[in-house]
Specification:
Radius of gyration: 28 Å
Strand content: 15-25%
Number of strands: 16
CATH class of the largest domain: Alpha Beta
Low-confidence stretches: none
Helix content: 40-55%
Mean pLDDT: 90
Largest sheet: 8 strands, mixed
Oligomer: single chain
CATH architecture of the largest domain: 2-Layer Sandwich
CATH superfamily of the largest domain: Bira Bifunctional Protein, Domain 2
Number of helices: 19
Distance between the termini: 51 Å
Shape: globular
Structural class: alpha+beta
C-alpha cells in the first residue's frame, strides 16, 4: 500500500507548530482589537461570479474552482467536451470557487449586510485562502491571511493607522521590517506622463516584478506589451528614483506636474508621511515607486512589508480600493485594508528563532501515575492546579517510570510531580524540574506558587 500524501503547496502542522501559529494569530488579533477592529468570518467558498474578474487575468487563473454537485456534466454537449475549451467548460461545470483572498469576500459581505453595518466599518478576519500557484519557498496553495479593513471613510488617517498596526505587530514579533509605500495615482500619473495611460495595468504588473526578475526582464516584459522604447526609456529614472522619502516626493512633484491625478497621489503620500512623523515609527518606512501589486482593485495607497533579516517575499500587503464595492452594486463606499501573511511570518519567526518560550509551551506539569490508589489521591490536586490556570496532565496509566519521564521529556514538559506512598503519608508532592534536574518536596500550596511563577 502506498504512503498517504497531501496536495502540493499544503502542510500539516504539529502541536508545537500550532502553538507557534496560535501565537502569531493571537498577537495580530490583539493589535487589531487594540485599534478598534471587530471580527467577522465569510465562507471558504464563494460564487465564482463573486471572485472572477477581481484579481486581473493572472489572478483569475489562480482561482481554485469547485465542480458542481451531482451530475456536473449535465447540459454539456459532446462537442463542447471535444473542443476542450477549458475556460468555457469551467464556467459551465463550476459555479463556486475557493476564496483567493479575504478582501473581495469582505466587499461582498459589506454589500449584502449594508443595512446592518454602521459606517465607517472596521473589521478584521483571520481565515485560510487558496491559490492555484506554483508551490515554492514561502509560497503555498493554502495559507492564512489576517486582514484588517476600514470601509466607508475617505480619510487618509485610516492609512496612517494601518501602517501603525503593521509597525506594532512586527515590533511585538521582534522582526525587523521595511514597510514600503506607494500610491496607485502616482503610477497612473507616470503612465500618463510617458503617454501610455491605457497601458497602466501592463506597466504596474511588470514593474511590480522588479525585485524578482530584475530591470532588464521588466523592460523586456514592457516591450512585449507593446509599450514603445521611448516610453520605456522615460520610465527608467522614475522607477529607479533614489533619495529620502521627502526628496523623492519633491522630485515627483516636478516630474508629474502635467498630471493632476499623479500630483494628487503625491499629496496623499505627503500627508501620510507627515502624520507618521508626528507619531514616530520604529520600522523603516520607504517610498518605493516599483511597488505596484498587480491586483486591479487598488486605487490609492499601496502597502507592502518585507523582512530585513530573511530572504522571503512580502509578508504583509494592502492598500486603498475605492471602487471595489461598486462592482457588487454599492457605489461610493471607499475602503482601505492590510493583510498579514501568517504562513510567511511563521517561516520568518522560525528562521530567526523569535518565539517567546511561553508561547510554545503547552503542558507545564505532568503527574506520574503509579496506580489506582495514587490516582485517587492526585486527581483533586490536578484539578486544583488547573483551577489555578496551570496546564497539567496526569499520565493515563501506571507505566514504567522511565517511559513516563521520557514522555515528559519528549513533550518538553517543564515539571514532573511524583506522588508515592511517602508523599501521600506526609501530604506532600515531589516536584522535579525537568530542565535543571532539581527536585524538592513541597506542600500543595507551595507547589502551586512555584508552578505559577
Amino acid at each position: 500500500m502506498s504512503q498517504p500524501s497531501i496536495p502540493k503547496g499544503t502542510r500539516d502542522f504539529s502541536p508545537e507548530e500550532m502553538a507557534k501559529r496560535n501565537y502569531i494569530f493571537d498577537t495580530i488579533r490583539e493589535v487589531f482589537k487594540l485599534y478598534g477592529f471587530r471580527q467577522i468570518e465569510t465562507p471558504s467558498m464563494e460564487n465564482l461570479s463573486t471572485l472572477m474578474g477581481k484579481y486581473g487575468e493572472e489572478g483569475d487563473k489562480l482561482l481554485f474552482k469547485i465542480l458542481n454537485s451531482g451530475d456536473y456534466l449535465k447540459g454539456i454537449t459532446d462537442e463542447e467536451l471535444t473542443d476542450r475549451n477549458t475556460n468555457k467548460l469551467a464556467g459551465s461545470l463550476c459555479e463556486k470557487g475557493l476564496r483567493y483572498d479575504l478582501t473581495v469576500p469582505f466587499a461582498r459581505y459589506v454589500v449584502m449586510h449594508r443595512n446592518e453595518i454602521t459606517f465607517p466599518f472596521r473589521r478584521y478576519q483571520i481565515q485560510p485562502v487558496w491559490r492555484a500557484d506554483r508551490p515554492q519557498k514561502g509560497r503555498y496553495r493554502e495559507f492564512f491571511q489576517c486582514d484588517a479593513d476600514i470601509v466607508g471613510s475617505d480619510s487618509l488617517l485610516n492609512e496612517v493607522e494601518l501602517l501603525l498596526i503593521a509597525d506594532e505587530v512586527f515590533n511585538r514579533f521582534g522582526i525587523r521590517v521595511s514597510i514600503k509605500l506607494n500610491n496607485r495615482k502616482i503610477l497612473s500619473g507616470i503612465a500618463e506622463t510617458i503617454g501610455e495611460l491605457d497601458k497602466i495595468v501592463d506597466i504596474t504588473v511588470a514593474i511590480d516584478k522588479l525585485d524578482k526578475i530584475g530591470l532588464e526582464k521588466v523592460n523586456e516584459e514592457l516591450a512585449s506589451k507593446g509599450i514603445p522604447q521611448k516610453a520605456i526609456d522615460q520610465l527608467q529614472p522614475i522607477i529607479l528614483l533614489q533619495g529620502t522619502n521627502q526628496e523623492k516626493l519633491e522630485t515627483l512633484k516636478t516630474v508629474l506636474q502635467g498630471s493632476e491625478k499623479g500630483l494628487q497621489g503625491v499629496q496623499e503620500l505627503e500627508l501620510i508621511f507627515n502624520r507618521l512623523n508626528v507619531v514616530g515609527m520604529r520600522s523603516e518606512l520607504e517610498l518605493d515607486l516599483t511597488l505596484a501589486r498587480g491586483l486591479n482593485y487598488y486605487t490609492g495607497a499601496i502597502i507592502e512589508v518585507k523582512a530585513l533579516d530573511v530572504q522571503i517575499g512580502s509578508i504583509t500587503g494592502g492598500g486603498r480600493y475605492d471602487d471595489l464595492t461598486g462592482i457588487f452594486g454599492l457605489k461610493g463606499v471607499s475602503g482601505v485594508g492590510i493583510s498579514f501573511g501568517a504562513d510567511r511570518i511563521f517561516d520568518v519567526l522560525n528562521q530567526l528563532d523569535l518565539y517567546p518560550k511561553d508561547s510554545i509551551q503547552n503542558t507545564k506539569v505532568l503527574f506520574v501515575n503509579f496506580g489506582d490508589k495514587e490516582e485517587e489521591y492526585i486527581l483533586p490536586i490536578v484539578n486544583k492546579l488547573r483551577q489555578s490556570n496551570i496546564a497539567t496532565e496526569i499520565y493515563p496509566e501506571p507505566a514504567k517510570m522511565k517511559k513516563q519521564m521520557s514522555y515528559a521529556d519528549s513533550n518538553k514538559i517543564s515539571y514532573v510531580v511524583i506522588v508515592g506512598e511517602d508523599e501521600m503519608r506526609e501530604n506532600k508532592l515531589t516536584l522535579k524540574n525537568m530542565i535543571t534536574g532539581e527536585q524538592k518536596q513541597l506542600i500543595i500550596e507551595e507547589c502551586v506558587k512555584v508552578l505559577s511563577s
